[in-house]
Amino acid sequence: xxxxxxxxxxxxxxNISGMGRITExxxxxxIREIRLALLEADVNYxxxxxxxxxxxxxxxxxxVQKNIRPDELFIKLVKDELISLLGGDEAPxxxxxxxxxxxxxxxxxxxxxxxxxxxxxxxxxKETKKPLLVACDIYRPAAIDQxxxxxxxxxxxxxxxxxxxxxxxxSHALDYxxxxxxxxxxxxxxxxxxxxxxxxxxxxxxxxxxxxxxxILVIDAMMGQDAINVINGFNEALNLTxxxxxxxxxxxxxGVALSIRQLTNVPIKFVGDSEKLDGLSKFYPTRMAERxxxxxxxxxxxxxxxxxxxxxxxxxxAIKMKQxxxxxxxxxxxxxxxxxxxxxxxxIKMLPQARKxxxxxxxxxxxxxxxVEAIIQSMTPYERKHPEVLKxxxxxRIASGSGRSVEEVNRLLEQFEQMKKMMKMFSNGNMxxxx
Amino acid sequence: xxxFDKLKGLVTKNREVKETSxxxxxxxxxxxxxxxxxxxxxxxxxIKYTKVSDEYFDELEEILIMADIGVNVVTELIKKLRxxxxxxxxxxxxxxxxxxxxxxxxxxxxxxxxxxxxNMASEGPTVILMVGVNGVGKTTTIGKLANKYKNDGKKVxxxxxxxxxxxxxxxxxxxxxxxxxxxxxxxxxxxxxxxFDGLTKAMENxxxxxxxxxxxxxxxxxxxxNELSKMNKxxxxxxxxxxxxxxxxxxxxxxxxxxxxxxxxKEITNITGIVLTKLDGTAKGGIVLAIKNxxxxxxxxxxxxxxxxxxxxxxxxxxxxGLFKDMMN
Lengths: 435, 329
Description:
The complex is a heterodimer. Chain A is an alpha/beta fold. Chain A has three domains: 3-86, Up-down Bundle (Four Helix Bundle (Hemerythrin (Met), subunit A)), CATH 1.20.120; 100-293, P-loop containing nucleotide triphosphate hydrolases (Rossmann fold, 3-Layer(aba) Sandwich), CATH 3.40.50; 300-427, Orthogonal Bundle (434 Repressor (Amino-terminal Domain)), CATH 1.10.260. Chain A contains 19 helices and eight strands. Chain A has helices at residues 3-14, 24-40, 45-60, 70-86, 112-126, 143-154, 166-179, 197-210, 227-237, 255-264, 285-292, 298-306, 311-323, 328-340, 344-348, 366-377, 381-385, 392-402, 406-427, and strands at 100-105, 131-136, 158-159, 184-189, 214-220, 242-246, 268-272, 280-282. Chain A has an eight-stranded mixed beta sheet, sandwiched between helices. Chain B folds into two domains: 3-114 and 323-328, Four Helix Bundle (Hemerythrin (Met), subunit A) (Up-down Bundle); 126-314, 3-Layer(aba) Sandwich (Rossmann fold), CATH 3.40.50. An eight-stranded mixed beta sheet of chain B has the order 3-2-4-1-5-6-7-8, sandwiched between helices. The longest helix of chain B has 17 residues, at 32-48. The two termini of chain B are 18 Å apart. At the A-B interface, helix 2, helix 6 and helix 9 of A face helix 4, helix 8 and helix 11 of B.
């Protein structure tokens, strides 16, 4: 997420380091780099302009402080400006109302239907709500089938009436929700261009009839400079309460995420960050700014992990790691837990300095994970606890047992040793944090 | 004679003969929104600055970047314009407009002959594979292409190899019914085996054109991208020499990610052309210039709406003409 932008920004900032103080001259280069980085990441042209102007002005006005290097000051400045660009505080979802009504709107292909499913899943899991999905995309072929299919996968009810008018469908859906004690109703609407007056009128009449608690714009992170026209078009026609930025899991440049708040004051509430149905995360401006600048998102990792590992378990493991007693049994258990976390790449990228260490380029092939699992499972319990006993004949047996080569077994053993060393360093605090 | 004169000629001819070609009309209609803002901005710029100056170039840069043409291309273009201003002694901004059109065209053509034609099999079915990231309009484009080829008198079959997205198979089936062409889709989850069965059936039924729908995949997903190369192997095995075309579908609202998409897909599979969709909105689709310039893939079709007939072969002259038409009157 934002790797590209982050790398470019880090490079720009590097130019500042090693300088005694910030002057107009030496900062101009950095500002030019930042400008290019933002433009290439599709950040809105006007936003880029005001961002660079503001950074420059504040940088020149920065008081020189003892013991703090100018580049450190500059990074902090860029980070603070990024946070304010992203919206400052997080914006929680309005869950009041009985039932609360949420409407998803946006262009074709922005990911409304998938987001509706993900959001329902999120509300059930994290807010203990009992959501109902309502299919109001009566135009796109098979859009209703798609939502029904998602509902089936998630075991969340979907209300539909075929190609009836959306205003009528919603009225009946609300009755249905009351009868069935659904406290959150999510409406999936058809994709439309913001300049399509007829279809925009349809949304307006839904909004004025039912006054939804949330009107959420779903917007594709890959959008270019036209984003401003789309956002403004929807925001002028409707009272948008927030937006969901989708497809932020590709190496998408995501400039729209950095532009939307500044241009419209509409907050980002969620980002779609994987294709899985739990791939929807609450949006935190500070954490996002830190990730852009490669400072990592430890809080984010912790939250994800909390979902699947109990605190005691985690503590026990930390102790083992610290003492260097982490063995293949633990590793096997962790692999199984990690599988539940979703794509491993997404977690690795959240580590501080992930990009600097090249971890953002890591691509984990699930097959490789399966191979590793097979190798470990071909070890005896004793071998798993005491890998040092593994010599040629044992390795050969493990290799043939797992259907892998001896080289692969060797590689795994080597990597495991390295990993143990790193864990010790991390837990003993020898690993310096960058900022 | 520059492109500008040629386009100007087109405008004059149209006016004189009072006869506009159907194709130009579709462009004209579809690109209205795209053009309006772009051209009015350039016009305002021309009124604000009658003389070429640094400020003029700064604002010109903004307009071009806002059209998603891309920082690299724009920087290169501005540099060329500055050079030409110097060497050709241009001081009038109106004169420079012609140069802008010329240079934009040159960026796209880049000294090569343009192949916007679809490569057809000399015998047996022509196989066209559609790929792209999520939500760009692959399935809709297939529906439109099917309609086009059916109207050309071809026997068309659609194969639903998007086994991932919920409802994708049903969506394609509905298109096949709407257009009235053959359809192949199963409950099978492995797209390669769907393609295997579908192509086998296409061979048996003497189908002329097979359009294969695939799942949207973000370009950094290794497995999905690998799956694509497996599909290619299966296709080649059943229909030697196929796929005859692999079209990357790109959303016109895509920003600079479009370049990354094109690069990543080109690495995995032999992309022969681009379909630029959703050009009926306000997006300028300037990314096609950047993609052509940096990855060298030509645009073959553009999508201008959701109807069956809203697909047109791409023609760079018509496209640039559509963007600059009002400036030339």
